[in-house]
Amino acid sequence: MKADIGLIGLAVMGQNLVLNMNDHGFKVAVFNRTHSKTADFLDGAAKDTTIIGAESIDELLNSLASPKKVMLMVKAGQVVDDYIDLIAPKLAAGDIIIDGGNSLYTDTNRRTDALKQQNILFVGTGVSGGEEGARHGPSIMPGGNPAAWEAVKPIFQAISAVVDDYPCCQWVGDQGAGHYVKMIHNGIEYGDMQLICEAYQLLSEGLGLSNDEIQAVFSEWNSGQLQSYLIEITANILAFKDTDETPLLDKILDCAGQKGTGKWTAINALDLGIPLTLIAESVFARCLSAQKTERVQAAVKLPKLAVEFTGDKASMVQAIGEALYAAKIISYAQGFRLIKEAAQEYSWKLNYGEIALMWRGGCIIRSQFLNNINDAYQADPNLDNLLLSDYFAEIMQKSEAGWRKAIILGVEQSLATPVLSSALAFYDGYRSECLPANLLQAQRDYFGAHTYERTDKPRGEFFHTDWTGTGGKTASSIYNV
After folding, report:
1. Cα–Cα distance between 215 and 251 in angstroms, integer?
2. Cα 156–Cα 33–Cα 79 angle in degrees, nearest 5
3. The CATH number of the domain covering residues in 185-430
């Protein structure tokens, strides 16, 4: 009996996806560049399964039923291209190559188009959920050549997470749309994590709460509107004790790592002219944390000025929770606004509510909050921004006072809140009918003849002023972000 799908790359994610497929009745063939890893897998976690081990690419391909489906779970970048170059010549028209890694969406665009010329179908799919998700049900975001969807759909939807009988896997769109949506997911993940970290620091250093007290706060938050996987695991982390029964968290170095997807999201936002301030600040916060040695020196050279908190702690805890929720809404509003701009820029037909539903299970940012996002897009599929929906607008108005109090606490205690603060700055700017960009345009025209529009003239008419009396009438070319 031929295998339903082949998978290359037996790192943890690859192994767990294979076991997940096997659990759901699919016959899987596997290959790893280091064959000993394949042997160890077959003798270990895959023992007594129907999983087939292959010692070569040819053996793997020969074991597959047509149309052949080969999934790559390898390092993003050149390694993916190398395997495609190796596999594609051995495939027939209509066979399918799937990239399940964290590839940049532009690479997926290129690969989809190139393989289409060879009559090979390409799928670039985001897979979120980490090791546990891969094993028991991830969020899967496939895009690429739509002709491949019907062939991979039964497998992907069977192994994905399911929430309310809805598989957390739907076709996202053409070319790199799937990997793009996964990139935005990861950017939002960066923002969510940093928001939680800032709330933690306000509770810890700002209010002087113990780890156990903060753990109780996060547990309570997880039973309300802030319920999410990241809030849940934060409560678990706060409760975890080291071998000496002291909090392990207090012994972890405050130096964060990153793999680049948050940076990709911020760069894309700059390219498309979308203010993705919260996610960008979360990336910079990780960069700042990495400057540990320099920060230690600065802490001595630039001592903090702090005012001890003397107010009602319970009231401030509530304010911090309101700030966390309001800023979280900003993060998703910015993220979905960027997705909408990308859909227009790259001619993708995307279902924004469906994207939110796919993120409800399996993935890192899963939360009940995503149902509300789907509701907003169901009510208005052409919604420009989540902040304009009645549901979220009401929450923002109710949360604003607490949000400002939390940031003031950070300012008074000399505690950095770059993401909470940038989110509020965006919110205040977004709802401002008038911004000081009139002065900015005057400055640009003064020194560079970049022109400006006038409030008393129709939009689209541009003017230049000879501000000094010594300039000319020639204007510079116009560039609007």
Report:
1. 17
2. 70
3. 1.10.1040.10
Catalytic residue among 182, 198, 263, 322: 182
Is 90 marked active-site?
Answer: no
**Residue among 331, 350, 330 at smallest CA distance from 340:** 350
Q: What is the DSSP-derived secondary structure letter of residue 89?
A: G
Which residue is catalytic, options 27, 68, 69, 189? 189
Rounded-to-integer distance, Cα 129 and Cα 137, Å: 8
Percent of the chain with pLDDT over 70: 98
Distances (CA, A) of 462 to 6, 433, 456, 458, 466: 59, 21, 12, 9, 14
- Cα–Cα nearest to 104, from 138, 141, 130, 76: 76
Active site residue 182: yes
In the numeric block, which tokens belong to residue 119?
């009559």
Q: Which is nearest to 8 in space by CA: 38, 36, 48?
A: 38
Q: What is the CB neighbour count within 10 angstroms for residue 319?
A: 23
What residue ranges do the domains of the chain occupy?
5-175, 185-430, 435-481
Residue-wise pLDDT for 331-383, tens only, equals 999 999 999 999 999 999 999 999 999 999 888 888 888 999 999 999 999 99
What homologous superfamily is domain 5-175 in, according to CATH? NAD(P)-binding Rossmann-like Domain (3.40.50.720)
Both structure tokens of 135: 């094993």
Strand locations in 73-176 (E): 96-99, 121-128, 139-144, 162-163, 166-167, 173-174
> What's the CATH number of domain 435-481, 3.40.50.360, 1.20.5.320, 1.10.238.10, 3.40.50.920?
1.20.5.320
Is the overall model pTM greater than 0.90, yes or no? yes
